[in-house]
Amino acid sequence: MINIKELNNIVDSCRQEMIDDIIKMNSIPSINPRMGGQGEFERFEWIEKKLRSYNIGYKVFEIKDEVVPQGIRRNITVSFKGSEDTRKTLWFIAHVDTVNYGDISLWNTDPFKPYDDGDRIYGLGTEDNSQAVIEMLYICKIMKQKCIIAKCNIGFIFASDEETGSRYGLHALFKENIFSPSDEAVVPDGGSSDGCFVEIAEKSQLWIKFTVKGKQSHASMPQLGVNACSAGMHLGVVLEDTLKEKYNYIDELFNPPYSTIELTQKFANVDSPNILPGMDQFVMDLRVLPKYDVAQVLSTIDDIIESFDEVNEGIKASYELLTRVEAPEPTNPDAEIVKKLVSSISETGRSAYLGGIGGGTCAAILRKHNIPTVVWSTLDEMAHQPNEYVLVSNVINDTKIFLSTIVKYC
Ligand SMILES: [Zn+2]
Asked: I want to staple 75 with a disulfide (CB 3.0 to 4.6 A). Which of 61, 104, 347, 361 is the partner?
């Protein structure tokens, strides 16, 4: 019988070691190569060294990528074999790449010199997703130390390339056939600061860039041109109003509980106030509830554009999709991992609740393959922001909750 209290004490005793590791690991840049970095290679070397020091075996999956100096991107898996059902694996998945630091003048400290102010450690990627990398390393260490064996396999994935779509990470691992249909997964890469929110669903995501063409002329002689700026603004309003009215279903599982349809980016048109623009471009960001079919939404947009062109002489509107991610089926709230994680969270006195978000995590990839997946962690949502930090207390407490979840599989 595994004693949870003893496990919690072990985690507490690791506090200083965890802080030192967060600082050491985050001093090694790991910026995604398609975001201007050199990739994750060196940080993986550090992670491997750590696993070797714990005497834990691991597998390396090298995926070719000419963009990085080494020519390959790494992914590492660790597996603790189960005692009964070895066809099933409960996976914990973290990503090792980070985004770029953005505008350096907005950082109060060097993003590559993690700064510990007591409970917060500031630095690029400390929360996204080093928090999970460190938690997983310590879970591995403690499982090895205490010989924790679950009924199913317990697996850990340290992945590359999450920030630009997981092509060299999770997608590539699916081609390596490491997953089985009975697997489940935990992705500690999103959550809330009270640690109560357990994500089991997401919306479809569309980024649509509209181009409206008219005819340029002098602004004082509008009869000689066709004003694309005016037409574009009208079209934007029509699109927003029509789509919001038509796709207005409320699903309380989600925050917010409706599909979001927002006009966002605008592009520069002409250089001076007296030119009547011949072209207007803008972007819409849509997060559509899984109840709706993305193709249906796009056909509504086609209809709007067609009738808009009809009533506006000389105007030709079109669009391109910058992003199209269709929401997979939500994870079943009755899945074993959902119930066990929720009960582990609840045992710490918090009232966990299930919900959905606007999308964009690698959980979608797993759910597409019918693997029940929860996204959960306790964090202040500092990802991709200057002065990103991780709370050491969250690292400690989430490690305890994951361990107690694993014990429920024993
Ligand atoms: Zn992340």
From this structure: 61
Contact yes or no for 259/357 (Cβ under 8 A): no
Is residue 88 located within the same domain as residue 160? yes
Last residue of a domain, one of 325, 342, 368: 325
The active-site residue, picked from 40, 97, 163, 183, is: 97
Domain membership of residue 367 as a residue range: 4-202+331-407
- Is residue 380 annotated as a catalytic residue, yes or no? no
Cα(81)–Cα(154) distance, rounded to whole angstroms? Answer: 7
Task: Quick: pLDDT tens for 257-277.
Answer: 999 999 999 999 999 999 999
Distance CA 89, CA 129 (A): 22
CA 187 to chain centre: 9
- To the query of whether residue 97 is one of the catalytic residues in this protein, the response is yes
User: pLDDT of 355-400, one tens digit each?
Assistant: 998 876 789 999 999 999 999 999 999 999 999 999 999 999 999 9
Domain stops at, among 277, 303, 325: 325
Using CA atoms, how far apart are residues 254 and 12, in angstroms rounded to an integer? 35
* Residues 109 and 190 occupy one common structural domain: yes
Same domain membership, residue 246 and residue 147: no
33 secondary structure, DSSP code: G
Q: Name the nearest CA neighbour of 67 among 185, 132, 164.
A: 164
Name the nearest CA neighbour of 47 among 34, 35, 56.
56
